[in-house]
Write a structure and sequence with these properties.
By secondary structure, the chain is α+β, with helices and mostly antiparallel strands. It is 46% helix and 9% strand. It has helices at residues 2-8, 18-31, 34-37, 43-56, 64-67, 80-83, 91-102, 133-145, 150-163, 211-228, 231-235, 237-251, 281-297, 302-326, 330-337, 361-366, 389-397, 403-415, 417-420, 435-442, 462-472, 476-489, 516-530; strands at 104-107, 110-114, 131-132, 168-169, 172-173, 182-188, 193-199, 327-329, 372-379, 382-388, 429-430, 499-500, 506-507. The strands form five sheets. Strands 8-9-10-11 form a four-stranded antiparallel β-sheet. The protein has a three-stranded antiparallel β-sheet with strand order 3-6-7. It has a two-stranded antiparallel ribbon with strand order 1-2. Strand 6 and strand 7 form a beta hairpin. The longest helix is centred in the middle third of the chain and has 25 residues, at 302-326. 48% of the residues are buried. The structure holds alpha-D-glucopyranose. The site of alpha-D-glucopyranose has 6 residues, from helix 8.
């Protein structure tokens, strides 16, 4: 545990390259007494070695080595990431930085976040003038990668302060650990004061609390720590308490028979009714990732150790559950298709009593022979077979997916390119629901009509996540193709929030323009592809203990 802790927080800066890191670690290891060599390898060390394995296995390496600069990052000028390369930066990069800086929000003259959209042309502002926790993540990563960590630190401290507010919906008090979906800074020009109002779901359309906010906060705290090497922020009593409050909410015992986290519809990026209630993949993947991040950042005092023990147990159960029951590939689909039902007792194969007739027609055609994915939801007699981009990418980044599963997720994207990528990366989910099903599932939501918004729309923000997944699985060429698609349209269309249509060809019906996370998502994708060592900020390696024990057969000899 001690080793995991040390290394989980050690500085692996985006400022130095992978090869530098390897050298650095090697010399350090050689200097160490022999005993130390036996220490458990850390997330970080593993991430680096496995990353280089990933690179080694890259299919069709097409100049990837050139894109990866062994010289490390060049400096702190904006935009740092493009300055280093011999090729001219895409003109969109400078535009994007300008737009990102325009979206900055200040509290007492300090930058604390970015607004969701800077769209003055839009008639209704709604809450797009607020700083959303989930939306700020790609902005934060862009700033970290550009050597500007202060805004991220300010944001982390501001939001953890908001967490301690008393939150109520009507007369009901929300759990202490809940983090806001968004907050707004109010400036009083007369008094020259700034104040903050936050929304924990009590103002949100549908009144749903964002389960993802707390997880993103923890993931970002680790990204900050990893990128800057500044351990002091995560170690502050505020941040330690912030983590523990989020963890208490999701590790508490109840009536659950599954290690997954039970959620209301609309509790994440998909913040409207879309049939994701239950155990949605997006939340489970973020939950898993934030448990691993917390494990690396919690101080091992008496209370901290108790949390760490609970986390380790939950991680084991959660990874087993997800890898076994959420995973779908051709073989698995065929097995489910032939399931017997009404099995009782421990010997049941069809544990959740899924009725094969409930498998939707589309999935039989959609499933390629090569590839697979984590399905949307699993609960008694219910499997939501839809494919969701965010959950699958986070499963790769957190190593919730095994290396084989990660490769299969990328295979599926390649095999089903027109459906999942089309003309604008990448679909939030596939397929869209229509007609009667749309009436029942969305409650006739006019914003979520088929192939629009959350219902099969294409979201440029997801580009950063899928690029990170591409790099981790050694498929930079896929990311490059997607970025090229985005470059054909994003700037010309004024950085829309989402695109509509089966191929994602149309600017979304009600999409905001100058949507900050579309801008930041593009920048992060670009910077990561140019300097893959940035990946360490948002990627975790597989925990050795989580791997199944491979037993040698009795005939095995040396
Ligand atoms: C929409 C999205 C949500 C996002 C918010 C602000 O409500 O569904 O995911 O956080 O806009 O951009």
């Amino acid at each position: 545990m001690e080793a995991t802790k040390d290394f989980g927080l050690r500085k692996v800066s985006s400022i130095c390259s992978i090869s530098e890191m390897d050298d650095f670690d090697l010399t350090k290891l050689l200097d160490r007494p022999r005993l130390n060599l036996k220490r458990e390898k850390s997330f970080d060390e593993r991430s680096l070695s496995e990353l280089s394995i990933g690179f080694g296995l890259t299919r069709g390496q097409d100049n990837f080595d050139n894109a990866y600069s062994p010289g490390g990052r060049s400096g702190y000028d904006t935009p740092a990431s493009s300055a280093r390369n011999s090729f001219e930066p895409h003109p969109m990069v400078a535009e994007a930085w300008e737009a990102l800086r325009r979206s900055l929000v200040f509290f007492r003259s300090q930058p604390v976040g970015t607004i969701a959209a800077y769209d003055h042309a839009s008639e209704e502002v709604l809450n797009y003038d607020q700083v959303f926790v989930r939306d700020f993540v790609p902005s934060a990563l862009a700033f970290l990668m550009n050597g500007e960590p202060d805004i991220v630190k300010n944001f982390l401290l501001k939001t953890v302060q908001l967490q301690s507010w008393e939150k109520k919906v009507d007369r009901f008090k929300l759990g202490e650990g809940a983090m806001p979906a968004s907050f707004k800074v109010l400036h009083n020009p007369d008094r020259k004061t700034d104040s903050v109002v936050a929304d924990f779901g009590e103002s949100a359309i549908g009144r749903v609390a964002p389960v993802d906010s707390g997880f993103w906060w923890i993931i970002l705290l680790r990204a900050y720590t990893k990128s800057t090497g500044d351990l002091t922020l995560a170690e502050t009593p505020e941040c330690q308490k912030g983590m523990k409050l989020v963890l208490s909410l999701c590790l508490s015992e109840g009536f659950d028979t599954f290690p997954t986290l039970l959620c209301a519809d609309g509790c994440s990026m998909i913040d409207r009714r879309m049939g994701i209630y239950g155990y949605p993949i997006e939340i489970q993947a973020l939950f898993y990732m934030s448990l691993k991040c917390s494990l690396a950042m919690l101080k091992p005092d008496t209370e901290g150790k108790e949390f760490m023990e609970k986390i380790v147990q939950r991680l084991h159960a959660l990874s087993y559950h997800m890898r076994s029951y959420y995973w779908l590939d051709f073989q698995q689909l065929n097995d489910i298709y032939r399931y017997k039902t009404e099995e009782y007792s421990h010997t049941a194969v069809n544990k959740f009593n899924v009725i094969p007739d409930s498998i939707p027609e589309w999935v039989f055609d959609f499933m390629p022979t090569r590839g697979g994915y984590f399905i949307g939801n699993v609960s008694p007699a219910r499997m939501d077979f839809r494919w969701f981009a965010l959950g699958n990418c986070v499963a790769i980044l957190s190593s919730l997916a095994t290396p084989e599963q990660s490769a299969a997720i990328m295979d599926l994207i390649e095999e089903r390119w027109p459906e999942l990528v089309g003309e604008m990366p990448i679909k939030i989910c596939y397929p869209a629901i229509e007609n009667h099903e749309w009436t029942i599932v969305t409650g006739c939501d006019p914003k979520n009509t088929r192939w629009s918004y959350h219902n099969g729309g294409s979201w440029p923000v997801l580009l950063w996540l899928v690029t990170a997944a591409c790099i981790k699985t050694g498929r930079p060429q896929i990311a490059r193709k997607m970025i090229e698609l985005a470059e054909n349209r994003l700037h010309k269309d004024s950085w829309p929030e989402y695109y509509d249509g089966k191929l994602g060809r149309y600017v979304g019906k009600q999409a905001r323009k100058f949507q900050t996370w579309s801008i930041a998502g593009y920048l992060v994708a670009k910077m990561m592809l140019e300097d893959p060592s940035h990946l360490g900020m948002i990627s975790l390696e597989e925990d050795r203990q989580m791997k199944p024990v491979i037993k040698r057969s009795s005939s095995w000899t040396c």
